[in-house]
Amino acid sequence: MKTKYIQLLKSQVEKLDVSDFDLEAWKSSAISALERVFGKSDSRIAHIEGLKIDYSSWALRDSNSQYKPVESCKRKGKEIFNSAIEELEIFGMPTGKESILEVYFGPEDLKILLSESDKKKEVIKKLKKEELLLLTLRLIEGSP
């Protein structure tokens, strides 16, 4: 799962380099990707929402200025996503879902669920129907 999330975040970085770049469209897909990986309360979402092309800057009025508003937004977007990718690579999946899973699974089962193992179905089958229902609801709602 971690590799798929990293791939999703890398695709957002690649979208910054397309020739017909549209900041607002990119922001929508970027926020969606961050919410999927880190949850709706992730601080990076506010940073993405705050990106805007500022054509009223004094730097634009200076003919010698190197300020390029679109490029500035793209650089900030790349930094936000590259730091998110690094976080996933170094620390693994966010702990929010991990703590929910800890309620229902022991340490060994948790390792299997959070790894690339094909034994995940066997671990999940150990849950009672009611536990599976509650777990699913908690994961969907994002509650601890």
Question: What is the topology?
Answer:
Layout (H helix, E strand, L loop, with lengths): L1 H14 L7 H16 L4 H7 L8 H4 L7 H23 L3 H10 L2 H7 L6 H5 L4 H13 L3
Helix pairs in contact: 1-2, 1-5, 2-3, 6-9
Plain-language structure description:
- 69% of the residues lie in helices and 0% in strands.
- By secondary structure, it is mostly helical.
- The longest helix is centred in the middle third of the chain and has 23 residues, at 69-91.
- α1 runs antiparallel to α5 (69-91) and α2 packs antiparallel against α3.
- The protein has helices spanning 2-15, 23-38, 43-49, 58-61, 69-91, 95-104, 107-113, 120-124, 129-141.
Please name the defining characteristics of this protein.
144 residues; mainly alpha
Condensed summary:
The chain has 144 residues and is an all-alpha fold. It has helices spanning 2-15, 23-38, 43-49, 58-61, 69-91, 95-104, 107-113, 120-124, 129-141.
**What is the H/E string?**
HHHHHHHHH
In total, how many beta strands? 0
Give the biggest beta sheet: none
- Going by helix content, strand content and strand pairing, the class is mainly alpha
Overall average residue pLDDT = 83
Strand content: under 5%
Coarse shape: elongated
Low-confidence stretches: none
- Cα-atom Rg, whole angstroms? 20 Å
Number of helices: 9
Span between N and C termini?
20 Å
